[in-house]
Amino acid sequence: MANSKSAFKSGAGVWLWLGVALVIFLLDQLTKIAIVGAFQLGESLPITSFFNLVRVHNAGAAFSFLADAGGWQRWFFTGLGTVAALVMVYLLRTHAGQTLFCWALSLLLGGAVGNVVDRVLYSHVIDFLDFYYGTWHFPAFNVADSAITMGACLLILDELLRVRRAR
Fold first, then answer.
1. Which of 42, 72, 81, 122 has a CA between 20 and 30 Å from the CA of residue 116?
2. Residue boundaries of the structural domains of the chain
């Protein structure tokens, strides 16, 4: 009986985490649609003395890594993101009761799928958040990138806490 309850609990729990990933994905896609509708490529709108909304396209990965690689990187990063998403769904399914770990994976999953969809539909990722200081600009990013970053931080925190508990 305990095994069936535990299986039910993790089976039901995975839907919560997939729902979190779906919210991240939708928020990412809706903000990108809004930016594409409101801005021309390269257009910028100053919001504060350190932040602009801007429309840029990134054919590469983080920090435009491999952006000028000739096109093969689109399918490489699409495949990598798809495989990573499938692994994350499996991990969410098998560890649905581990709250911090699943929060991390859900953020990573929603962000990864958001950027994979961009690559498939547009051959690039739409970025629009531009933070800067003086003439120095941090590379523009989007909601998916923010979720991936937060998810990675939570994953590191989860591992540090797990190691600490093991001592």
1. 42
2. 10-38+51-166
pLDDT digits (tens, 9 = 90+) for 19-37: 999 999 999 999 999 999 9
To the query of whether residue 158 is one of the catalytic residues in this protein, the response is no
Q: Is 127 a catalytic residue?
A: yes
Q: Pick the catalytic residue from 28, 118, 130, 145.
A: 145
Of 35, 24, 87, which is closest to residue 58 (Cα–Cα)? Answer: 35
28, 118, 127, 158: which is the annotated catalytic residue? 127
Q: What contacts 14, CB < 8 A, 6 or more positions away?
A: 89, 92, 93, 96
Who contacts 132 (Cβ-Cβ below 8 Å, separation ≥6)? 50, 51, 52, 138
Give pLDDT tens digits for 78-90.
888 889 999 999 9
Residues 6, 64: Cα–Cα separation, whole Å: 43
